Amino acid sequence: MKNILYLIAIPMLMFSCTATKQVSNAAELKGDKDQRITESTVDLNDIKAHIHYLASDEMRGRDTPSPELNIAARYLSTSLMRYGVKPAPGCKDYLQKVPMKNIIPADTGTLSIGASQLDLLTDFIMLDGENLELSAPTIFLNRGTEKDYEGIDVNGKIVVTSCGFDGQKSPQEWFYSAQQKQALSKQKGAVAHIEIYKSAQIPFYFLTRFFTGPAIVVDEGTADSLPMFWVSAEDTTAIVSLKEGKTPCNIFVDGMSEEEIETYNVVGVVEGSDPKLKEEYIIYSAHYDHVGVGRAIEGDSIYNGARDNAVGSVTVLSAAENIAQNPTKRSALFVFFTGEEKGLLGSQYYADNPAIPLDKVTYCFNSDNAGYNDNSVATIIGLERTEARNLIEKACSTYGLKAIKDNMPEEGLFDRSDNVNFARKGVPAPTFSLGITAFDETINTYYHQPADGPNTLDYDYLFKFFKSYVYACRLIGNTDQSVFWKTGDKYYEAGKELYGK
Question: What DSSP string describes 454-472?
Answer without folding.
Answer: GGGS-HHHHHHHHHHHHHH
